[in-house]
UniProtKB/TrEMBL annotation:
InterPro entries: Endo/exonu/phosph_ase_sf (IPR036691), Endo/exonuclease/phosphatase (IPR005135), Swc5/CFDP1/2 (IPR027124). It comes from Plakobranchus ocellatus. It comes from the Eukaryota. GO terms for molecular function: catalytic activity. Residues 148-286 form the Endonuclease/exonuclease/phosphatase domain. Gene3D superfamilies: Endonuclease/exonuclease/phosphatase. This is Craniofacial development protein 2-like protein.
Length: 409
């Protein structure tokens, strides 16, 4: 498939695949990063090192989970964290406490992927493409070249071959949006075991376990696309290799991977897991240290590349785009509702006593400390579960108290 042609914001006509942030639902084309203030659209100079990780977190439905993950990002000094199994519906981005979360989900609270970036990276984001609830592509301004990150969540072993083929087709489609001369990082939960047997310059000998059929398919895809499985090339003890453990901790496997285009393999300086990290998941994060430099992104709008002809040739993407457009119009509501909202807005503006209500901050230092205590108790299952229960109870109580206070105002 040929790479999409360049189209600027002014070249794209109404009804095209060009979308502006935020995105509420559906699969979207690349979305340009819009910065409200030109003077803020710069990225400070930093060392040519980025810490990038991927983690299957099981769910991000509970708000306490997001705060937990942000705390772990800070502790591990991560700049970018890819997430598998987010379970959020739709696609778009949100900001939370200095972090930006870009996500891509389906119509149900299952599967889903996302990428969280810190303030250092936020202003370097050029755009993203929420392709499906299993594949998300983010483009980042780099120096001397931009780089791309694809976060994935592959079908589990219980899924059929059709689902697996669909996943790899989506991965192929995402890869076509990236320039061949730009670094490409692909990471996430592949639900595959590549094992310890070296395969050319694609798979190293420092993997874990015995290769399975899904692992063979992943290796075949990597060979075709000149991608190396990064965390199999660094000698580490077994505890720094496994990424998932079974219930009861009877089995530990390596099924999550940090991969990079072969041309830029030297940009990956180190890759290993952090078994001490905790967000109440049966997976642990794979962390890679990369020699990559961010570029100052001073443009208010960024020209985005996308193949508009794909709507004619790819029925699946065309149908998803049509559904997305339909959802946008349905979200507008009927005329009476819009008129009522406008009247309420005028009434609010005319009331000199009206004040903007501050958002209730329900996350407390006590809850954060309990999360850290739970992390330190990972070796003691009984104690770990007891502390986790306390975290949930405190969070529910705090949010309920905050809701009652807001209702009295």
């Amino acid at each position: 498939m040929s790479r999409p042609k360049i189209k600027s914001k002014n070249d794209v006509q109404e009804g095209s695949c060009f979308k502006s942030i935020p995105v509420s639902s559906g699969r979207e084309s690349y979305v340009p990063q819009v910065t409200p203030d030109r003077h803020q659209a710069t990225v400070r100079k930093m060392k040519d090192k980025l810490n990038i990780a991927t983690w299957n977190i099981r769910t991000l439905l509970q708000k306490v989970k997001l705060e937990n993950i942000k705390q772990e990002m800070k502790r591990m000094k991560l700049n970018i964290l890819g997430l598998s199994k987010v379970r959020w519906k739709g696609a778009g981005k949100i900001t939370s406490g200095g972090h930006e979360i870009i996500y891509s989900g389906g119509t149900e609270n299952e599967k889903g992927v996302g990428i969280i970036v810190d303030q250092t990276v936020t202003k370097a984001i050029k755009g993203y493409w929420a392709l499906s609830d299993r594949v998300l592509l983010v483009k980042i301004a780099g120096k001397p070249v931009d780089f791309n990150i694809i976060q994935v969540y592959a079908p589990t072993a219980n899924s059929n071959d059709e689902d697996l083929d669909k996943f790899y087709n989506e991965l192929d489609t995402a890869k076509t949006q990236c320039k061949s001369q730009d670094p490409l990082i692909i990471m996430g939960d592949f639900n595959a075991k590549v094992g310890t047997e070296k395969v050319d310059d694609i798979v190293g000998k420092h993997g874990l376990g015995i290769r399975n059929e899904r692992g063979e398919k992943l290796i075949e895809w990597c060979q075709t696309n000149n991608i190396i499985v990064g965390n199999t090339w660094f000698q580490q003890p077994p505890r720094r290799k496994w990424t998932w453990k079974s219930p009861g901790d009877e089995t530990r496997n390596q099924i999550d991977y940090m991969m990079i285009s072969k041309r830029y393999r030297n940009a990956l300086l180190l890759a290993k897991t952090y078994p001490s990290a905790d967000c109440y998941s049966d997976h642990v994060p794979v962390v890679g240290k990369f020699k990559l430099k961010l570029r100052k992104n001073s443009k208010l709008f960024t020209n985005i590349k996308f193949d508009l002809a794909i709507l004619k040739t790819n029925q699946t993407i065309r149908e998803k785009y049509q559904i997305s457009v339909q959802n946008k119009f349905e979200a507008l509501g009927d005329a009476e509702e819009v008129e009522q909202q406008w009247e309420n807005f005028i009434s609010y503006r005319g009331d000199p006593k009206s004040k903007k209500k501050a958002k209730q901050k329900w996350m407390t230092e006590e809850i954060l400390n309990l999360m850290e205590e739970r992390r330190c108790a990972k070796g003691n299952k009984e104690k770990y579960e007891q502390i986790h229960k306390k975290v949930q109870e405190k969070a529910i109580c705090q949010k309920r108290t905050g809701s009652m206070r807001n209702a009295k105002r």
